[in-house]
């Protein structure tokens, strides 16, 4: 597979699309010859009134539609408060100017059913509503696929949803919470054909909704409205499939929604590495400097990565919601997740420690089993105009067992095998977490005067049972060669308790000016108990024991004062935070160490919204970050004899000044979506790693306060529709520049990291028959170290992709995607070029599309490998993992309450 083939596919997709296009233009005016802004203009299929293409008018009432489809179409223009206008036109590749179109007044306005059926987009004050029928989805697509078709909405490989440049905080179905509002569960389990409307809502804060005073704090939420045919009766789907090499999968989704009660059931069971991530997450790569905290799991090969190795997954979930009355509801859900992951990998680590540099590589056979139970509930009462109450909480139980067989080899800088370290590790991690959040808000009689109070509490218990058998051979091939075998048992119990109490009061000063005061009490207690016994079998079963208890208590008393100014366009807030931080920590039996500190932290926010969907925001704040318990503990963790970890009780707090600039522009009239974010952090007394490596390659890590670190992060996204071509392009750029340092064998290692990512993609704006997307991304990481000469690392990744979705008929659909990925790294000679090709062919063999056959081909070229690379302050690492590779699945899907879409009625 060559790059020429990829470019040929990309060029063919674009060329096939841009030929033979027609332009339809004109102006929409009212009876007084005034332009109508945001009127909807649509090209409809005359056979069934389905949407072919659409646009909206600008402030001059002008519109323009570029459409490649030829033949007769029905033109429709409509706006709320006016009668719809219809005209049959024929597209033949030539421009069509409809000139001025006058919409007549309609006292009764348009029928709501007709609006939802034929108007692709409705724009209200804080809401953009999309007609789901206007966007092509396949027979068995989930609503995640539907969202990716909407202009201004993106879904990344982790399931994070970004709408109009803002991350979506919550997702609702028919205005009600669904599985705790978790986007990943909602998006991957509800069928796209069950949705009639998608609303992107710029929602005010609960306080602003209650008091009527806009505080400038908004969150973006998405609400999915179900089709009427899906309400008051059960709907969903059942899928099952099998394929070569004993591969199988099954999927169940059932929903019963009525105006008062909602019940949903989901289930999955498969052995084809389906965990919720899409195939774009097949290769996970780490760029830049990473923390070495992953080594706390004794070997980086244990780090979980999506679609790595061979994975069996079982999922079951139940959601129940009930609305007692308007604005008073209760929701509860339970979710169970089981995974069994087997993995074979090869890890190669290049370690530098000043004068003693060496390589470490290992063969790893890893088995992981996870059983996770998650219970959530949410009660909300906003039915009273003067007060509101919100209670939510949950309980999580997570049990993980890990078995690792590792064959490790240490190679000196003369490329000689010096030491082998073979170990068998068995770990059981049992964690339970309970949480409860209560919030009460009260609106007082004077306009703008209000208060709110509440508490958040979390209790977490974790138990680690570790058994490790290690066989070490040192000085291989030399007269003083020696062998050592050790059996280590280590049990750790960790308990974390956190209580957060707060009180907010707002007092109106004069018109649009407010004084706010906030009081916060935060109490955190971390308790850590460790019991370890080590038997050296090669030394006449010599036994060593370690019994340790450590407690860390932190109390923060915070008072915040601020002056706020709110208007339609401007929001200004500035003030100060008085913070009293008290810490007490130490080992059981020792005199606890006491740290009392007082801080004055300034804060400010300035926001300007000149018009709808345009926002500029500036924020400044100072953050006080106390050391984590693992950074100050005196408990020594030497379960892995080659990586000994402990803390430093003399660490000071970090002080970070953070400046953030945000700019969001989303304009449907010009089909423009722009988002930018710039953040700068300056960290004083930064906590850094202190690593000592001896001649036997034993690494000991603790922490120090190491000067000041700086970090600059920028993020830019631009999406624009080229109307003359009917193509939308998206340009993204992410950059990171940071300075940090570490101590390696008592030498200061200054580290400078630069990350750059550029991506450009093209897609057709009319997706009624086919959907084409193509593009490329380029990312590079440059890491410079001061410790050793010629140590700088440059890592790049190039990704070229093309995807094609074509509907041969209402029953037959083809979807395929090709990714060509190139990795280069100046520290690893094993550079990779990986073509990943996937395809799916689905056929609905009954007229109502209830019965669907689907043939799925994954990794057709059989590149069954997963590559993971990272850098830390004293080593580079590359891990190559054997993964599932090529497989073929034939599946059958039966849809409950699936039926033909009713034809739209017209006047």
Automatic annotation (TrEMBL):
It comes from the Bacteria. Pfam families: CarboxypepD_reg, OMP_b-brl_3. InterPro entries: CarboxyPept-like_regulatory (IPR008969), OMP_b-brl_3 (IPR041700). Residues 456-779 form the Outer membrane protein beta-barrel domain. This is Outer membrane beta-barrel protein.
